[in-house]
């Protein structure tokens, strides 16, 4: 009996390996989740940018393009996740229907629901792929059926859970803007440098308002902070690579000397509550933009699109100079000034040594 059980386990393991199915927390929680953020970026976020530009310039064609891009967010997220999971073509194409169903049925918590349902449908589709003589029928049928049935059963509860958690965070931030400004700015900022997706997390929880503003402040502190702090090692090329790209470039150096992470973290602890308490900086654009920091200036465009949206809804008056100065100070000036200041004494005592921040660009 034991031999049969062991033989059966070996057969299952061999089958899963052949199908490239790996039940991994990193694969699902980091790779697939990060790919979901890329899908949102290529649909909802780009659509919002086009929509905002079109509204400001009075160009209907850009408004139409933006609307179409935003409408495709569910399928785009699903295909991005399927690509990260290395799905065969038929499975990948079938995920379009799965993403649309999960996004519609989940309500406001679409991103997390799409991610969960797509992962399940992808693995089932990979398992059946090329196992029958009617693969062109069976593979799409299994992938779509599993994805849509799971969406019917679980998409709304998953979406409701994500919305509940996000709403609790936003409620707490409105209630305690100083404390939550520190916590959110530091926590979401860390995800900008870690090999996880803060953008996906913000999108999944639907973080907006003051909470979204605090998250944006933390991401900017990491990106601009690391860029400014490492100017002597990496020059302007390194500054723009980190400041407009990603501070994740420093993850290798952080693993060698974690102390280099202290200055941008301290900066985020300061800029977060300034964003919430002094400037009341809100992210009322796409939630994903809160976790983008200064990457391609997407976070700042998200804040601006939120201003425009609030004006259209009658929730605020005109954009003031204080609004603009708040974004400039929180996202650019303070991180560029404070982080090197915090790093200076650490360099003197040898906590940060020459070359610790070198990206070898």
How would you sum up this structure, described in words?
- The chain has 361 residues and is mainly α.
- Helices cover 76% and strands 0% of the residues.
- The radius of gyration is 22 Å and the shape is globular.
Give unreliable regions as ranges.
Answer: none
Helix content range of the residues, please? over 70%
Instruction: Count every beta strand, where a strand is a DSSP E run of 2 or more residues.
Output: 0
Termini separation comes to 59 Å
Globular, elongated, flat, extended or rod-shaped: what is the shape? globular
SS class: mainly alpha
Radius of gyration from CA coordinates: 22 Å
What string gives the helices and strands in order? Answer: HHHHHHHHHHHHHHH
* Rounded mean pLDDT score: 88
Number of helical stretches of at least 4 residues? 15
What percent strand?
under 5%
User: Main beta sheet: strand number and arrangement?
Assistant: none
Whole-number total of structural domains? 2
Keywords:
361 residues; mainly alpha; 2 domains; 76% helix; globular
Strand and helix layout:
Elements: H1 2-18, H2 25-57, H3 60-71, H4 73-84, H5 89-105, H6 110-128, H7 135-175, H8 177-193, H9 198-205, H10 209-229, H11 231-243, H12 251-256, H13 262-278, H14 298-312, H15 321-348
Helix pairs in contact: 2-3, 2-4, 2-6, 2-9, 2-14, 4-5, 4-6, 5-6, 5-7, 6-7, 6-9, 7-8, 7-10, 8-9, 8-10, 8-13, 10-11, 10-13, 10-15, 13-15
Q: In a few lines, what is going on in this structure?
A:
With 361 residues, this protein is an all-alpha fold. The chain is built from 15 helices and no strands.
